[in-house]
Design a protein that fits this description.
By secondary structure, the chain is α/β, with parallel strands linked by helices. The chain has seven helices and ten strands. The relative contact order is 0.18. Bound molecules: adenosine-5'-triphosphate. The site of adenosine-5'-triphosphate has 13 residues, from strand 1, strand 2 and helix 1. Keywords: ATP-binding, Nucleotide-binding, Transport. InterPro entries: AAA+_ATPase, ABC_transporter-like_ATP-bd, ABC_transporter-like_CS, ABC_transporter_ATP-bind, P-loop_NTPase.
């Protein structure tokens, strides 16, 4: 299985999450166990409301589980940490800072300041092909460009683990495809551990080494599928018979869970 010989970067150990709501207690996650290996690219799919974002927020340290724990590099996660970077669907850029200064912000958190930070920021902007827009403000950019800035900023923070919650979900199909290609290129060069949530089964296959399928609420891991398609993956990969087999298999599993939600 992909990644099995590598060391465990993040261990999700019997995580349960209960929310107190106006209607009483609601179990969002129950008994989630997963080992994410060093430099592994994991994609996560499942019906709406199955707890994907909740799980990501627990790994990020933004939420504390009701029971169970998450270990990162063997240490219990008790809050946010620099080794874990998050990219959300909404770009979360600082609107009052230019593109370059948004990236500088992440560098400053690492202690890189002044001219050196500016130079480094340009290097990260080049990576996402946005160096020409360094002095623009976020409001002057398209949705796809803003998300590329958010990705450059996430990379500039040099996290060991990238947690991505439907980062391309709000984008048009063409921009999404372009960003998938950019992300794959960057991942192949920089090899970070990635945990990537998506609603899009094709996206889960084109990016991931393993695809985690979550069951309907209360969310747990239903199945993990090895995406045994070699990298580099390109848009032509989508035409291959294996891609289509995997797509049918994963889609079938997700659809069964979707029907559970509707019952
Ligand atoms: N802070 C909260 N308080 C109460 N309930 C919550 C809270 N956060 C999430 N939930 C509930 O927990 C369940 C899981 O939510 P979550 O956002 O993790 O699902 P998801 O799989 O990411 O959904 P989607 O795919 O629609 O984004 C949902 O029923 C949601 O309403």
């Amino acid at each position: 299985m992909a990644g099995e010989t590598r060391s465990v970067k993040v261990k999700i150990d019997n995580v349960k999450m209960i929310f107190n709501t106006r209607k009483g207690q609601m179990t969002a996650l129950n008994g989630v166990n997963l080992d994410i290996h060093e430099n592994e690219f994991i994609t996560v799919v499942g019906p709406s409301g199955c707890g994907k974002s909740t799980l990501l927020n627990i790994i990020a340290g933004l939420l504390q589980p009701s029971s169970g724990e998450v270990l990162c590099n063997g240490q219990k996660v008790e809050g946010v940490g620099r080794e874990r970077g998050v990219v959300f669907q909404q770009y979360a850029l600082f609107p009052w800072l230019t593109v370059k200064k948004n990236v500088c912000f992440a560098l400053e958190m690492r202690g890189i300041k002044g001219a050196e930070a500016e130079k480094e920021a340009m290097r990260y902007l080049q990576m996402v092909d946005l160096e020409k827009f360094a002095d623009h403000y976020p409001k002057e950019l398209s949705g796809g460009m803003k998300q590329r800035v958010a990705i450059a900023r996430a990379y500039a923070a040099e996290p060991e683990i990238l947690l991505m919650d439907e980062p391309f979900g709000a984008l048009d199909a063409q921009t999404r495809t372009q960003l998938q290609t950019d992300l794959l290129n960057t991942w192949e060069k920089k090899q970070k551990t990635c945990f990537f949530i998506t609603h899009d089964v094709e996206e889960a296959i084109i990016l991931g080494q393993r695809c985690v399928i979550m069951s309907a609420r209360p969310g747990r891991i239903k199945k993990i599928i090895d995406i045994d398609i070699p990298y580099p993956r390109t848009q032509e990969t989508r035409m291959s018979p294996r891609f289509n087999e995997l797509k049918n298999e994963i889609w079938g599993e997700v659809y069964k869970e979707y029907l559970e939600v509707r019952k």
